[in-house]
Every structure is written in C-alpha cells, then in structure tokens.
Design brief:
The complex is a heterodimer of chains A (about 140) and B (about 625). Chain A is an alpha+beta fold. Chain A has helices spanning about 10-20, 25-35, 80-85, 90-95, 115-130, and strands spanning about 35-40, 50-55, 60-65, 75, 100-105. Chain A has one domain (about 10-130): SCP2 sterol-binding domain (Nonspecific Lipid-transfer Protein, Chain A). Chain A has a 5-stranded mixed beta sheet with strand order 3-2-1-4-5, with helices on one face. Chain B folds into 3 domains: about 5-205, Aldehyde Ferredoxin Oxidoreductase,  A, domain 1; about 240-425, Aldehyde Ferredoxin Oxidoreductase Protein, subunit A, domain 2 (Orthogonal Bundle), CATH 1.10.569; about 435-565 and about 585-620, Aldehyde Ferredoxin Oxidoreductase Protein, subunit A, domain 3 (Orthogonal Bundle), CATH 1.10.599. Helix content of chain B is about 45%, strand content about 15%. The chains are: A alpha+beta (about 140), B alpha+beta (about 625).
Chain lengths: ~140, ~625
C-alpha cells in the first residue's frame, strides 16, 4: 500500500470519516437518501480491511469489518484507491470503467452521494488532521 | 450478404412508384450502415441542393447491420437527409421497434422522394409494399394515430408517425415509433409532412436473419448481454431512467439552466432527478427491442393542473429542455409538456431551447408584447408553455407560434437586436441538455464539428470526458479532465471515428460503452461478414465523418460554421465551472490539424480523402 502502514489504518480513517459525516446536517441528509447497507471491501489489502455503512430506514450506522446482514451493495477496491476516492482525487466513473472499483448489487442509492463527494473530501481532510496524518492528505 | 439484407425500398410518392433495389456490398463495407450508409446513398443519388421540404428532397431511413439481433442496444435506426431546420446534412437516431421489423421484412432501409397527392400511409408487409390513404389520420395527434393503426393492422405491426407539427412543417417536427421512441432531431417530421406521408407501418411474418457466423456471434452475444445488463450505468438507468444522475450533473455544472445562464440550481436538481420521477410518477419501465437496460419511462400524473394518464414519460433530455432550461422545477409540468410535444410531434430539445431563448428575449425586451400578441413569457410559467406556446408552435399560429416554429437561430435572426448572441445552437441545431462548460470542454468541440450541428450523441466525447471509456487498442487510455482543453483535440479524433461507427451501426450509446474495440470488430465480422480488423473499422468511421463534412461543404458550410454561439462560450456565471473559459479555438485548430482538414474550407484535404479511398468524392470538392 502506498498510503497506509497496515490494514487497520484505512479502516480507522474511513470509519471516523463517516462518523463525522453522520453528524453533518447536509451529509447526513444525503446519506439517509442512500437507504442501503453498503460494504466497502478493501480485503485485497488485508483480510480485515473493510467497513460497512448502514443508511437504511432513516438510521445511520457505520462500523469496521463486515456487516451481520447481507449488504445491498458491495464496493470493492484497494485501500489506496479508496483514499484517493474520499480525497476526491479519483474519478469514480473512470475507476469503475477500468475495473479499479468493482460494484456488486444496486448502486442506485450511491448516486445520491455523488453530489456530496466534495463535502466528504473536506471532512476527510479534517479527519486525517485529527488522526495526526497530515502527511496522508492529498494535494 | 450477411446481417444486412442488401435491399432497400425506393418510393417515389409523386408517381406512386415503389421499387426494391439491391445495394452493392461495397457501400456497406465503406460506410457501415445506418447514417453512414444514408450519407453514401444521399451523396450518390440524392438531389443534394433540393429544398428539404420540396418534393425533390430525399429522405432516407436506414438500419445498421445489427438491427433485429437479440442484443441489448443493437436495434436503433437512422433517418437522414437535408435538415429543414439547419439547411445542412441532418441525421437522427431512434430506438424502439421499427428497425428490427423492417430488417425481418427483408430491408435495410427506405428511400423516399416526391410528394403524395393526398395524405398517405406506406404499408410494408414482408415484400408486399403499398401506399394507402391516410386521410383519416391527417390532423390527428400521434397517440391517437398510433392507437388507430394498432386497431386497423394489429398490435405486432410497427409504425412511424408524424403529428400535426410535421404536417404543418414546423422546422423541428419529429417522428415517433409506437408513440414513444423518437427520431427527434433535425426536423425530419416536417420532411415527411411535406411529402404528405403521415405514417409508415411494417410487419414481417418471420424473424430470421442470415448471419456470417452464427455460432461465433452467439458466443459473443452470451458475453455481451450480461455485461451490458450488469453495468452500473445500466442498473441505475433501469431503475431511474436516463435522468438517474441529473442531480450529479447539476453539481458538476453539466445541466443547463434558464437558457444557459446558470450552471447550478440545487432545488431543481432535487426536484427533477430520475429517482423523484420514479417515486412520484413512474407506472412502469419499458425497453427498446431486445434491450435489457430498459431505461424508458411510463408515467402518470394523477392530480393537479398537469394531470396526465399513464403513458410515455420524459427522459433526461426532455426533463432538462422542458424543465430547468425554461426555469421550471415542476416535474409534473415537465411530464405533461413532454407528453404534449410527443402527441403534436415536436422535438423536445429544440422546443425547450427555442422557448428558453424567447423567454430571455422577452425578459430583455428584445421580444415585445407586440411580437407575442400579448402573451407574457416568463421563466417557469408552465401553464403558458403547455397550453399556449407548444400548441402555437405545432400549429404555427399567430406571430409567436410562427416565429418559434422556425427554431431559435432563425427566430433570433428575425428579431435581431443582438438576440443571436444568446441563442444556444451550432449550425442551427439547438444544443442538447449538456453544458460543455460543466460537462466537458471537449463537448464544446464535439458540438461544433458535428456535421448535423450541436449533438451530444454524434460522438462519445461526453462519455470519454466523464471517464466511461477506455480503449487502449485505439490509443484512448488516458484520463481527461473535463473542464480543460488538455488532450481534447486528440481524443476528439478518436471520438469522431468511433461515434461514426456507433451511429452507423445504429447502436445505443448506453450499451456501446460496454463493448470493447476488438468486440466491435468481432460483431461486424460475425454478423455482417465485413472481414475487418481494427484499422479497417476505424477507417470506415473516419470515412463516414468525412463524407458528412463533404455534404455540408456542398451547402456552403465551411470551417467558419464550426462554431458555438457567444452564449455557449461565455465563462459560466456560477456553479462548479464558474469563471472558467473554454479554449475553443485552440481545440478546434488542433483538431483540424490532426484530422487533415482544411482550415478554411472545413473539409479534409484531398490527400486525406484519397487515403480513405474517397477518390470520386475528392474530385467533387477539390
């Protein structure tokens, strides 16, 4: 991995990112519209390198590992590309076209997040700073 | 011949004469099919200089080699000729069910000339072809004529029908298949109307096709169909239609607002996007022939001033053109406006963009109450749009209806006062619902160089800029940054050849994206037996683009016509692209050089034509 020392680091950052997003008015509204249980699967970088986000029925929860239920959608990519993606430095359409991102299940809900990616990236910068990982911030 | 039948129906409506001709295989090998084949036939045998609304004008319907295959996206067809809206080469593509039925009946296309003495109907039943009276249908809307034709001939018969707008020769009248699928652009409904041809119906008794290598095609089909169906874009369009990502488009600045004066309107984005259409008004999705994407919408608005019964619903272009472009975020009103345009037979893009221009002109005082005969034009006034403007345009009634029925470019020339500066068109064809300032600067180039005028589907530039294309075999393996000019000329060279192939193959742009370049070659070879490699296929695409450019040259179009209006090149006023300038002329010059095009004449230099095997064509222009 280019940006991470081990498989725990990205999950720590991404879970914290979505915990922060869930208390942001604009993003929490957007996340609720997603209305899906999503697994973000980075296991190509380690068996425990994954987290889930549950946006169903107006509730918002996030956690490391795999969800207890079958996800509505699984998004598989590398932890490095996930870092680029949350930093708004990866064109998701291109990444999907080039198979860098593999999507299983319906991505209909995820489209609701597309307009919010800029805001997600802003929060992600703050999260990385909070974790003392300024060196990981992509310019 | 394989895939193609090699046969076309040639109809002289003046004489009532119908013939079936066999085309030489070289026409297909050189120009593929669809709009490429149409350009070839038009060049060879059309009265090119004829007024498009005169009996001498030629109107061509052409299939691609894949029409009728059980393959998602394969069964679109082309219509072509001289556009009454632009006066230039025009072509338009339509999905639905007409193309496969015509193929099963044994034909690759229809060439129409002349003018019937009375309203007529062309009936094709296998090899039996006749002309019947359409007096009973003349003056009626497309929905009721579609129903009447189904009652008279039976549900399996497929049709193409024009509405009152076509009969009245509105310059952007369209033609509908099954009252749902549109030959929308360039005004060929008016050409049909000028020939007194209300409709064409077709029915085949068998559905067999003769393929070059059926076994190899079947293996390919089994690979492509699941991939096309399973693609992320197909999934979201299956659920929420072609407007599925309208909201994302607004945030990137791609969605035009109020005659291209704004690139961001959050409330509108949340009101008009595809998921809202699904939640509020969708009754069921539907599909073109043999397509698993099924992006078509059927909607009902149950109550309120814009109530409409269950029927065809709007797709992305209609939602934007009759929504945000004219300042409305009322989705029920958009559904009704689209339905009214469909029934009257008006292209929703040109209708919306022309009305948007008129609204701005009225706001500026360039169009006065005297010009409108007292009808006020205000952004988002959908009652006036639906109840007054659209019917007036279709009927060409009153000063305003007559003015707007000519299209925005002609209307602005008539009004003057600098109002052409804020039209949105290229070569007279109104700009569709993607703003290049936000969607991608390469799209500005694509709009300008497109032979038919501003068109988002002539070439896959929009898809290339958004990242939905990856073609290492033909040199497109780099990333494009939409809001810059970087690599746009180079990628446009690839786009014009590839787009010409896709449109000549009459394939759907959404399904196209899942087909790799070697698979395109395999499709042409297993279905039509073209015996191509990648180079031969790409050369055919380039040849099609060149030929359409030559036809436009015969109309006096030159490099000076490959432009966008000042409005389209202003830096965006808000949204993500705010303040960014498009280096339009830099991209254009680079593209011309890379395509071996003469910087003044706007056509390929003689040696480039000869290198493409276009010796006769070169002799006619050089």
């Amino acid at each position: 991995m280019e940006y991470w020392k081990n498989e725990n680091e990205p999950i720590q950052a991404f879970v914290k990112l979505f915990q922060a997003a869930m208390v942001d008015d604009e993003l929490s509204t957007g996340l609720k519209k997603v209305n899906q249980l999503i697994l973000f699967d980075y296991t190509e970088d380690g068996p425990n390198c994954s987290f889930w986000m549950d946006c169903r029925s107006g509730n918002l929860n996030v956690g490391p590992g795999k969800p207890s239920e079958e996800p509505d959608m699984t998004m598989s990519l590398s932890a490095d590309d996930a870092h680029r993606s949350w930093s708004n430095k990866l064109n998701p359409v291109m990444a999907i076209t080039r198979k860098k991102i593999r999507v299983k299940g319906s991505a209909v809900g995820l489209l609701k997040l597309v307009p919010k990616l800029k805001k997600v990236a802003e929060i992600y910068v703050d999260v990385l700073k909070d974790l003392g990982w300024e060196d990981k911030i992509l310019k | 011949m394989y895939g193609n039948t090699g046969k076309i129906i040639v109809v002289d409506l003046t004489a009532g004469k119908i013939e079936v001709e066999t085309l030489p295989e070289t026409d297909y090998l050189s120009y593929i099919g669809g709009s490429g084949l149409a350009a070839r036939l038009f060049w060879k045998r059309g009265n090119i200089q004829a007024d498009p609304l005169s009996p001498e004008a030629m109107l061509l319907f052409t299939n691609g080699p894949f029409a009728g295959l059980k393959l998602s996206g394969a069964s679109r067809s082309s219509i072509a000729g001289r556009s009454p809206l632009t006066g230039n080469w025009g072509d338009s593509s339509c999905g639905g069910y007409f193309a496969p039925e015509l193929r099963y009946a044994g034909f690759d296309g229809i060439i129409l000339t002349g003018k019937a003495a009375k309203p007529s109907l062309l009936v094709i039943e296998d090899s039996a072809i006749r002309i019947e009276s359409a007096q009973a249908y003349w003056g009626k809307g497309i929905e009721s004529v579609n129903r009447s034709l189904k009652e008279k001939f039976g549900k399996p018969w497929r049709n193409l029908v024009i509405g009152p707008a076509g009969e009245n020769q509105v310059k952007y009248a369209m033609i509908l298949n099954e009252a749902h699928h549109a030959f929308g652009r360039a005004g060929f409904g008016a050409v049909m109307g000028s020939k007194n041809l209300k409709a064409i119906v077709v029915k085949a008794s068998s559905k067999t096709m003769n393929l070059a290598d059926s076994e190899a095609f079947e293996i390919l089909r089994q690979k492509l169909n699941p991939r096309i169906k399973g693609a992320l874009a197909s999934d979201v369009m299956h659920v929420n239609g072609t407007a599925a990502n309208l909201e994302g488009g607004v945030y990137s600045g791609d969605v035009p607002i109020k005659n291209f004066t704004s690139n961001f309107w959050q409330e509108m984005a949340e009101s008009l996007t595809g998921s809202v259409l699904s939640e509020k008004y969708l009754t069921h999705g539907s599909a073109c022939a043999h397509c698993a994407i099924a992006c078509k919408r059927n909607v009902a608005v149950m109550e309120g001033p814009f109530a409409i019964p269950d029927g065809p619903g709007p797709e992305y272009e209609t939602i934007v053109s009759l929504g945000s472009m004219i300042g409305s975020m009322d989705l029920a009103a958009v559904c009704k406006a689209g339905r009214v345009c469909n029934d009257l037979g008006l292209d929703t893009i040109s209708t919306g963009v022309t009305i948007a221009w008129a609204m701005e002109a009225y706001e500026r005082g360039d169009i006065t109450p005297d010009d409108t005969e007292g009808i006020p034009l205000a952004w988002g006034d959908m009652e006036t749009v639906i109840d007054v403007l659209i019917p007036a345009i279709a009927a060409k009634t009153g000063k305003l209806g007559s003015l707007l029925a000519e299209g925005s470019a002609a209307a602005a020339r008539h009004i003057g006062k600098g109002s052409s500066d804020y039209t949105a068109h290229s070569k007279g064809l109104e700009v569709p619902a993607h703003d290049p300032r936000g969607g991608g600067h390469g799209l500005a180039l694509a709009y300008a160089i497109s032979p038919r005028g501003a068109c988002h589907v002539a070439f896959p530039m929009l898809f290339m800029e958004m990242g939905a294309c990856f073609y290492p075999e033909i040199g497109f393996e780099y990333e494009l940054e939409p809001k810059t000019d970087q690599n746009k000329a180079e990628s446009a060279v690839i786009a014009v050849a590839l787009g010409s192939i896709e449109n000549s193959a009459c394939f759907c742009q959404f399904a196209d994206r899942e087909i790799g370049i070697p698979e395109w070659v395999e499709l042409f070879n297993t279905v039509a037996g073209y015996g191509w490699d990648i180079d031969a296929m790409m050369l055919a695409g380039k040849r099609v683009f060149y030929l359409k450019r030559l036809i436009n040259y015969l109309y006096g179009r030159t490099a000076a016509d490959d432009v966008l209006t000042p409005r389209m090149l202003e830096p965006a006023r808000d949204g993500e692209p705010e303040g960014i300038e498009i280096n339009f002329y830099g991209m254009k010059d680079a593209f011309y050089r890379l395509m071996d095009m003469d910087m003044v004449k706007g056509i390929p230099v003689k040696s480039a034509l000869v290198a493409c095997g276009m010796v006769e064509e070169a002799g006619r222009v050089w």
